[in-house]
Design goal:
The protein is α+β, with helices and mostly antiparallel strands and 690 residues long. The protein has 21 helices and 24 strands. The protein has 4 domains: 140 residues, Serine Threonine Protein Phosphatase 5, Tetratricopeptide repeat (Alpha Horseshoe), CATH 1.25.40; 92 residues, Immunoglobulin-like; 166 residues, Nucleoside Triphosphate Pyrophosphohydrolase, CATH 3.90.79; 130 residues, Nucleoside Triphosphate Pyrophosphohydrolase (Alpha-Beta Complex). One of its GO terms (biological process) is establishment of mitotic spindle orientation.
């Protein structure tokens, strides 16, 4: 079979131009070709005469040539070019795991020439070894055959060149001879690389941790050996016996982007031993036992059988809201709501009516009062009215002092933008009490409906955590929403933020800017806050710092500017789970007045957590600018682990009880470094829920 493949290759060589005469010539050839192959097919004129079938043929030809360019780059050990091709094309487009006419894959050539950088780049892209190499003998026989037949071809071409008279045909034979001589040297180098290689050493730093009450996670690093061949896969084995007899299961990991594996479906409370071994083209190396040697699947809730705090809460709240709606749906004030069509046509006509109603237009200037503005942004563009103004509507022109409780109530309304009409009707029913607060809140709901109608959209986004106030008595409540699609709105258009800032002519003095001028000056900061407040933490266990400060009408919480929806924090480890044994140890440490550091006799899992906490506490104290000596008076919150979706969990570090919340006028000796802000507690809770 191999001989037939080589004959086919010789026939192909005779039909097509001869191969490169040397590595340098080959490199120039494939670079020139691959440069020509990089064609942007979307740039072709759609009205051209090239039919769909022609374009498909052209595309397939292009991909075939890119596959050939990848083989050339690997053979020439051009790491930069290999990385460029892997970045430019998907594995499917490159036919990364389709053998060539010699039965080889790019990864086979890389590992047998012992080119570790190229081999690792191919592995990370999803490359595999040839399925033909089912044993050491089959690989050895295959490479030896390639060497032998390449040598035979070199001898044949040498004889032809020596015996033939100089002519054009002889010149072509000489080029073929040089190409085959180079390929012969490549195969010999591959054969030598295979023969001199040895099985890999054991993986290093095999760490075992408890991932949940039914799973454990093992992480590891590649072997330290430098002389063995590149590792192409790993095997994880587990058993209830330290001798691994009998074994319970194994898993082969051939996707090497991240070296970790979670063993699932285990029995809670049972000890499991784990070991990991590495594989290269010479076979499997020795296994490496994990540290600690075993792990017992568990979760901290098993310590006292505690149920998750939020279990069933969302369903209960939905049910409660449904009950409230049911009670109100038969009210007289709701009859108009039933008769309103829900079609898009009616929504548009209603919005158009708003445009011609004298009291239902966007405002250009502010008088003394309370206003609502909605900022919609996409990349560096912002939505403005046709008069190049940020959309603003009036809430109350007689309201010159916004009470914090009204503002916090409005932030909760932002969770129900699609229920504004229903809320308005509910507040209308309650207006018989003539409450000033209810009157203000009804006007807030009316302004929201007006903004929704003018824009033609219900979701106005997230409320910025503090309103903008100027010295003229204007108060501006700001909502922010990022638009990620090419969405169109009524009565507004997109303009670059920088253009809006430079083109707007201020009607106020620099010493006393209006609320609108203050908004334009700080709009980038507000957009940055909005984007950061939607970011999520990577999975892991974190140590959070709870610090509050109180004012006359609110309590504020300290948060980092880079992630304002989360407490000040540092990462303890990547595994978010706290096992039952770790939680028991934390409870013991919290119950003694002078905690005793874990000693050599302590369980290694608990000792590992103790060391991780020490590092995290030092890092956190530095972050919030508190001397490490003061940390001895701090304490861990030992009532529960804060769980966020199963992938992120928090342990809380609390200051002394007298310092958890700083009262008005109380001196705080330790001021955090720059990069922090304080949010109203209710605003923080809404952001954390999101």
């Amino acid at each position: 079979k191999m001989t037939q493949q080589m004959r086919d290759l010789q026939l192909a060589q005779a039909r097509k131009p001869p191969g490169p005469s040397s590595p340098n010539a080959a490199k120039r050839l494939y670079r020139n070709l691959s440069g020509k192959f990089r064609v942007n097919y979307t740039s072709f004129d759609e009205g051209s005469l090239v039919g769909r079938g022609e374009k498909e043929k052209l595309r397939k030809s292009h991909l075939f040539q890119s596959n050939a360019a990848l083989f050339e780059a690997v053979e020439l050990q051009d790491t930069e070019r290999v990385q460029e091709l892997l970045k430019q094309y998907s594995p499917e487009e490159l036919d990364l795991n389709t053998p060539n006419s010699e039965g080889l894959l790019p990864l086979d050539i890389a590992i047998m020439t012992n080119n570790a950088p190229i081999a690792k780049a191919l592995l990370h892209a999803g490359a595999r070894e040839s399925p033909h190499f089912v044993s050491l003998e089959s690989r050895s026989l295959h490479v030896s055959t390639l060497v032998r037949e390449a040598e035979q071809r070199v001898n044949e071409l040498t004889a032809q060149v020596v015996n033939e008279a100089p002519n054009t045909d002889c010149s072509e034979k000489e080029k073929q001879l040089k190409a085959w001589e180079w390929r012969y040297r490549l195969y010999k180098r591959m054969k030598a690389g295979f023969e001199h290689a040895r099985v890999p050493d054991a993986p290093t730093s095999v760490h075992l941790s408890v991932a949940s009450s039914s799973s454990v996670q093992v992480t590891f690093w590649e072997p330290l050996s430098v002389n063995s061949a590149v590792v192409t896969k790993y095997k994880v084995e587990w058993s209830c016996s330290p001798t691994f007899s009998p074994p319970l299961g194994e898993a082969v990991i051939d996707k090497l982007q991240s070296l970790h594996f979670t063993i699932q479906g285990l029995v809670s409370g049972t000890a499991y031993y784990v070991q990991v071994s590495a594989y290269n083209m010479k076979g499997w190396g020795p296994p490496q036992a994990s540290v600690p040697p075993f792990a017992i699947p568990s979760n901290w809730r098993e310590y006292d059988g505690r149920a998750p705090r939020r279990r069933g809460q969302a369903a209960a709240l939905d049910h409660l809201l449904g009950q409230v709606k049911t009670v109100h749906q038969h009210c007289v004030c709701h009859e108009p709501c039933k008769n309103q069509p829900q079609s898009r046509k009616h929504s548009v006509s209603k919005s158009l009516k708003h445009l011609f109603h004298p009291g239902s237009k966007f405002l250009k200037t502010l008088k003394r009062g309370l206003y609502l503005t909605a900022i919609f942004y996409k990349d560096d563009n912002i939505l403005v009215t046709h008069e190049d103004q940020i959309p603003v509507v009036e809430i109350d022109d007689t309201y010159s002092c916004l009470l914090m409780q009204d503002f916090l109530w409005f932030t909760k309304v932002s969770c129900m933008w699609d229920e504004i009409l229903w809320l308005r009707q509910c507040v209308t029913v309650s207006q018989s009490s003539c409450s000033c607060i209810l009157q203000t809140r009804f006007k807030m709901l009316l302004a929201v409906s007006q903004m929704q109608g003018l824009l033609g959209i219900q979701d106005l986004g997230q409320v910025f955590f503090e309103p903008i106030k100027d010295k003229q008595g204007n108060i501006l409540i700001v909502t922010l929403k990022e638009v990620k699609t090419n969405q169109t709105f009524e009565s507004v258009r997109w303009v670059p933020i920088c253009k809006l800032q430079t083109s707007r002519k201020s009607v106020s003095s620099p010493e006393e800017p209006t609320a609108l001028d203050m908004l334009l000056i700080s709009v980038q900061d507000k957009l940055a806050y909005h984007q950061r407040s939607s970011h999520a933490l990577p999975p892991g266990l974190y140590l959070g710092y709870l610090k509050l400060c109180s004012a006359v009408d609110q309590i504020r919480v300290l948060v980092p500017e880079r992630l304002p929806n989360i407490l000040c924090h540092v990462k303890i480890r990547s595994n978010p789970n706290i096992s039952r044994e770790e939680w028991e140890w934390l409870q013991k440490m919290a119950s003694v007045e002078e905690p005793v550091p874990a000693g050599p006799e302590a369980d290694s899992t608990q000792d590992q957590l103790f060391q991780e906490l020490q590092v995290a506490i030092k890092e956190l104290m530095t972050l919030v600018n508190i001397p490490l000596g003061e940390a001895k008076d701090f304490r861990l919150y030992s009532q529960e682990v804060l769980d966020f979706g199963g992938q992120v969990s928090f342990l809380l570090l609390l200051p002394p009880s007298d310092d958890v919340c700083t009262a008005p006028g109380q001196n705080n000796p330790y001021t955090p470094r720059s990069g922090f802000l304080t949010l109203p507690l209710q605003i923080f809770e809404l952001g954390e829920e999101g």
